[in-house]
Amino acid sequence: MKIDTGILALFASPLIALLGGIIVLLLTSGHTPYVPDRPEFLSYIDRLGFSSQESTSPGAAGSIRNVFSPSIPDEENGSQRPETLIPVFVSMIVENGTKSFCVMNGRKMQVGDRTDAFILKAIEKDAITIRYMSGIEETIHVKVY
Length: 145
Known about the structure:
Elements: H1 5-27, H2 41-46, E1 51-55, E2 71-73, E3 80-82, E4 90-94, E5 101-104, E6 107-109, E7 118-123, E8 127-132, E9 136-141
Antiparallel strand pairs: 1-9, 2-3, 4-5, 5-6, 7-8, 8-9
């Protein structure tokens, strides 16, 4: 039985390529994948809790309110006075002209709606502004996905 050399050439090139691939795999098997020190999505999460305050009284400080502190500094003497602020959790903002609304603390609210603690003053694309009964305005920014 005689074997044609053309058929052997057809089978030889894939075998050579397969052996070359195995050799390269064995030589590069010590390669470890790149793992960042800090996952990138954490930088987006860090920017979610941004909030600021503005006071309507002249000469008031425009500092950022500490959302983890239950009290606000008193403007006259710099001491801490207790303020009954409820935590505000904004779940959703729907911007639709005059029909815009947001969901705060599980309740659908439009501009002008009030609770015992605050009045909703403005709804923007990625933020809402509320005014507490003490006169302090707070803008709460929401991450848009």
